Amino acid sequence: MPSKRQRKGTSKKASHTGAHPGSALPEVKREGASRSDDTTPGSGAAPEEEVEDFRVEPAVPVPRALHPIEPDHPGAYAMSTEDMIGVDSHLSYVTRWARMRAEEERGEVQFRAVRNDGSREALVLLLGLKNVFIRQLPNMPRPYVARLVFDRKHESTTMIKRLPGGEEVVMGGCCYRPFPEQGFSEIAFLAISHNEQVRGYGTRLMAHTKERAKQLGLTHLLTCADNNAVAYFKKQGFSKIITLPPERWQGYIKDYEGIVLMECVLNYKVDYLNIPPLLKAQKMCLLEKLKEVSRSHIVYPGIDVKQMRGVRIEDIPGLQHIDLTKVPPPTAAHGTRSGGASGAKASSAAAAIAAERDPVQLAALHKELQQVLNQIKSHASAWPFLQPVDPQETGAYNYYEVVKNPMDLRTIQERLDGGGYYVNKDIFLADLNRMVKNAVDYNGPGHYITELAQSLQRFYSSKV
Ligand code: ACO
Fold first, then answer.
1. Residues annotated as region Disordered (predicted)?
2. Mean pLDDT, residues 372-377
3. Is the CB of 192 under 6 A from ligand 1?
4. Domain contains 6
């Protein structure tokens, strides 16, 4: 039976108000509800938090579509671009950015460019940073690390965290050697304290380092990355392809074994500390342009579910404009036809759709689907899916709160009996797949219901 799935999230809330100091660009607008923040795969250690829904303000005013397609159906309306995008707080890179900004605004975290100028403050910070590097980069000889960190030609972006007692501790940093005449900076060491890793600080550290490089008038960052840090650097915009002419860097970079030379080209139009507002503006611009060629922004009135039976697809509001000759044929992944050239594909799709409307062909299709459905229902793994989930009987009391589009074999049978619903195999297959997806999503990997669902899917995939 489906079991109650562990819901993620804690009661901790992050606030996201106000602009970043020194920047007029980014703003976030709060929404009413709060929800759980799904972390990005790969950032496993990041705690999941419940965050208040919010929208990011675009970095620049977005020009509106000049000639958007207008609603042309009674009751239809055009959605605003903002509403098409909805809240941004479901994007993990946005929530991380907002959290970092909020921490910096509250003074809990600071990033400071520090050079050994002999001052006590600089020496204390650089000593703290050297200790982080020694712990996080154990293969690096200690004297070498100390020499570079305290070298007066090197500079470091230090990440300083204020502890609850008020004490300030260096939690990470990036040590680099700027070569102003050559136009680049070489990153020598970069690390975040073990207990603060994979929470987004490494990204923020790099963003501050890039902004500092822009201040210094540099165009490139180069680094000899440890093999195990190559993936991190790639995510920060570094590449193994070096575009900087060799005469500008060869002889300046220290080369050693087990490293990969990587380069990041700086773009002065990008505010690296505020990427989400920039992406938001780009996304909105694209949607505005799309409004001139697509109807994706038009919301049509729904159909009366009581009249569902016998409603033809083309009678559904909003679908009248679809040119059936341009509907792509079912994909090979669905186990059905795959066409040849695109023109042939379109006409074969139209022919297929017309054929599926033919009563004789439709009857043949339903007979075939019924045979498959009988086999599915008699399969040993089918028993949990024979009828709709009963929350009381199964103990899955929140099932219908979690699963918004339930599906089961009895409903599929009823749809098949109705005669007009499954006009092709893809719709039938989509219902089966939804049933399996619900089971997997609700129960999670490794659960026996998930395994039964997947076994059933393997079975019917070879039949439909
Ligand atoms: N391998 C693969 N991916 C990584 C790694 C890694 N070693 N470290 C971080 N990432 C990914 C994260 O999963 C995250 O991905 P996402 O954006 O898709 O979620 C992304 O990189 C950014 O992660 P952050 O949380 O911003 O980075 P973090 O705070 O963990 O700092 C750092 C990254 C500095 C590499 C840290 O893990 C660290 O100190 N590691 C040990 C020291 C080290 O290896 N330093 C680099 C040596 S090379 C040199 O110094 C030139």
1. 1-54
2. 96
3. yes
4. no
Contact 175, 133 (CB under 8 A): yes
**Is the minimum distance from the CB of 190 to ligand 1 under 6 angstroms?**
yes
Residue nearest to atom 19 of ligand 1 (CA): 43
Residue ending a domain, among 271, 295, 320, is 271
Does ligand 1 have an atom closer than 6 angstroms to the CB of 231?
Answer: yes
Active-site hit among 155, 186, 211, 288: 186
Determine the atom of ligand 1 nearest the C-alpha atom of 259.
48
pTM for the whole thing? 0.66
Count of domains observed in the chain? 2
Give distance in angstroms: CA of 165 to centre of ligand 1. Answer: 28
Residues 116 and 248 in one domain: yes
Active-site residue 288, yes or no? no
% of the chain residues with pLDDT over 90: 66
* CATH number of the domain residue 413 falls in: 1.20.920.10
Which residue's CA is the nearest one to ligand 1's atom 38? Answer: 191
Whether 182 maps to a domain, the answer reads yes
Please give the residue range of the domain that contains residue 400. Answer: 358-461
> pLDDT by residue (tens digit) across 107-163?
999 999 999 999 999 999 999 999 999 999 999 999 999 999 999 999 999 999 999
**Ligand 1 near 413 CB (within 6 A):** no
Ligand 1 geometric centre to CA of 201 (Å): 9
Instruction: Give the Å distance between the CA of 202 and the centre of ligand 1.
Output: 6
Please tell me whether residues 120 and 253 are part of one structural domain. Answer: yes
Does residue 156 lie within any of the structural domains?
Answer: yes
233 lines ligand 1 (CB under 6 A): no
User: How far, in Å, from the CA of 216 to the mean position of ligand 1?
Assistant: 25
pLDDT tens digit string along 234-283?
A: 999 999 999 999 999 999 987 666 678 999 999 999 999 999 999 999 99
Whether the CB of 134 sits within 6 Å of ligand 1: no
In a domain, 72, yes or no: no
